[in-house]
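Page 42, continued from yesterday. The earlier attempt failed because a stray header line got pasted into the input along with the sequence. Redoing it now with the clean sequence only.
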Amino acid sequence: MLHTLKVRTGEAKAEVQISLRPDDPNARWNPRQKTNAAGEVLFEGLPAGSYLVQRGSERMPVKVPDSLDVLFSPVVFNAMKVTINNENGYGAQVGFMNDDLIISVNGTEFKNERQMKASMEALADEATIKLGVLRNGSTLVIEVEPARFFKREGGADFRPATR
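This time it went through. Structure tokens are written below.
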């Protein structure tokens, strides 16, 4: 069964670009539409699943068919979700597990996605960094070599997330 998702911006403003994509890092499908005079767009023919609605740099996760009519309310991404894709890779070796949330670097807690990315990029050339990790409600610190951890051979994927 296919579904229609209505996204409302909350303001009667036409020509605001809204995009939708499956919440899957490998997805290549990403339709874009401009709002009508009421500030709404319809995305039709959607299979059930998780999606990200985007307006500019702001994003909002939605689940179809759980949510078929949504008011766009951007979410603050202030963590990186870890997915281990190689159990023998560097990430697993230093102690990371699936669904760990990286919430800080060298003691500086992430406030938003822009600050999170800037912090990580600024420290990319360091020999080691300390990552604050939220796991099952507890916080721990894992020291990593960024040159190994954030590369393909690190054996992990990272996606912006919320706490």
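Notes: The chain has a mean pLDDT of 93.
Reminder to self: strip header lines before submitting.
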